User: Fold this.
Amino acid sequence: MRGRRFFLLVLLLVIAAAVMLAAVGIGAVMIPLREVAGIIWNALRGSISPSPLPAETIILQVRLPRILLGFFIGASLSVAGTAFQGLLQNPLADPYTIGVSSGAALGATAAMLFFPKAASTFTIPLAAFAGALLALFTVYRLGSVGGRLPVVTVLLAGVVVSSFLSAAISLGMLLAREQMRNIFFWLAGGLGQKGWPLLLFIIPYFAAGLAVLLYLSRDLNLILLGEEDALSLGVEVEQTKRWILVAASLITAGAVSVSGMIGFVGLIVPHAMRILIGPDHRYLYPAALLGGGIFLVAADTFARTVIAPAEIPVGIITAFLGAPFFIYLLRRHREKYRF
Amino acid sequence: MGLQIEVKDLIFGYGGETVLDGISLTIGQGDFIGIIGPNGSGKSTFLKNLAAILTPAAGEIIIDGKALPRWRRRELARRLALVGQGAAAGFNFTVEEMVAMGRYPHVQRFGSFKPTDHRAVERAMHLTGCYHLRERGIFSLSGGERQRVLLARALAQETPCLLLDEPTSFLDLGYQVELLELLRSLNQRERITVVMVMHDLNLASRYCRKLFLLYGGRIHACGDPEEVLTREHILEVYRTEVLIEPHPLDGKPQVIPVSTAQAGPNQNFQQRIHIIGGGGSASPLMKELFARGFSLSAGVLSVGDSDWATARRLGLTMVEEAPFYPISPQRHRQNLELIEKAGAVVLAPVYIGPGNLPNVEAALFALQRKRPLIVIDAAGVAGRDFTGGQGAALYRRLEEGGALFLPRPDADAVIEALFSASSGQ
Assistant:
């Protein structure tokens, strides 16, 4: 069992590397794998040629940041989804369930609506992140009862906040006619034209959140047995739930602020990984990280090449690829898999 | 390893409703305690307070001299293990993973399992008979198997005290006994303290050395099973008429319910019926009338006689005579006193000898005092009269005096006769 899980993680790591390398080569300009590897190797060594070749520019300035960003966004959504499904003990939970993402969307919408001049690829994520934190704070306050954080009230508070914010976004779009297209595109989610700075923007949240989740992975396993069982086994249940909620929300906030709402990754990849590697979160988180990254990089590569030079919003691709794949997994493992 | 739990004036409520209303008790190392009581009496709530899952509104729980709120959970989990009712859904962990979670309080966060941890997990699985299930997912297990896995997890915790919330509720008879035998052997060999909430009074009586009977959030009775499981206590708490019988092997009190539909005083005939019998002649009728809620008395019966045993089991008021002795004038008088206060008298088809002739005279006395008398007599008195005709003569006088003769000890016929006699009065 242990050996099998370890093997699967290594396998996922190899697949992740292969998919990213391949994705760097694929595009309007096809670049052979050997050249890709060479350029990345040189860049890693710090030797950047004074007059870069076109391929070098394409790879280092356009494709590599996009692919790495895609990997981290996919990993973020998938890890956060895993945590929310466990925390809320609900198979339908995903990073968007408790309204943090709606907060981010409203922040972004507000920025485009009220400060269309200042709105840029960098200020919109900041506004989105602020909105996400505000939504998290609201859900947290609404959901806690007498110092405790009952799963059901958190879920309800999340759903309520989420629908309230969605209504506000719709109103905003209606009011801002000339911005409506921009807002729509932002909401649909995408990874294009982001570059290195935004990648650096989300990595701290991702790293910190992931560290907290991994630290508490064993405790979450026990909470899944039932909160009373967890208490009697020595888990500080309320404290653990609080930290997991905040950590998973921060990861979500970072991802959504940068890339908008990319659906299905945070719902489906955790389930797929659970089928593959079992419910133990000490292994499930790393698997979800790699699985989510692989999935989104692959989907994004497809999104930017299939009708090139135009792009399909990657959220559409994830839904198109994700749903059938998930149904396949579910049917194959119907007997053994139960949430 | 010595463990001491002290509970002082524990009060707990859900919302405004008080569930535990001032419970105080002490549990020492090596105790085997059963907590019994009707539904809603606060048994499970009490256990959850002990396990620090619920926080009392007032009062204290002190474990090893330290009040419960001052314990760190992980440390507490090395002293107390709880076996809950196992309703949690969760994810599909394997049995072995599940049992291994019992080591949580012993293993450092990122530490790995040491040989002692592996040994504890394996031993727990062997003891509870779920080693062969270790690769299976818990969702594929039956309710009973899952309950054993929960016990295994608690055993893997290696605590000096086990708290169990109805550990036998999903188990079949064989596994119930097996689990309780396991707890008993752990208790005796390793002096592990066992505190369990039990619904089954008879199993609780056989395995627990001390019982606490909870009722309305208070301790209604406590002590060894003989002190707690009495007919009166059960009637007060469960509102059910029962018989208490010693277990044939170990003599522990066993509770035998009398059908609840028929328990309580019979509404149609509330006066006491006095039964004259002996040699087993009255037993079927006594049982039948008792089950239908009639108030009964009996006399005079010889100690050790089978009718005497029945009357005693049913807890009837009766007049007893030493075995193999004729009925003494004193006992006879006592019998007449009972008859005088009774609403009706039944004379069973007893064998009549010189020793128990006064019993037939007592029946005649009933007639003289205008008590309805029912005489059960199938084949005539001649065949069971060993007094040279004295008994038969008395029977003739009974017949002349207006006794109602019934051919069989049929309860329905007796009851019908009683009603007609009492309404005729």
Remarks:
- The domain at 32-39+55-333 of chain A is CATH 1.10.3470.10 (ABC transporter involved in vitamin B12 uptake, BtuC).
- Residues 54-87 of chain A form the longest helix (34 residues).
- Chain A touches chain B through 26 residues (CB under 8 Å).
- Chain A has one domain: 32-39+55-333.
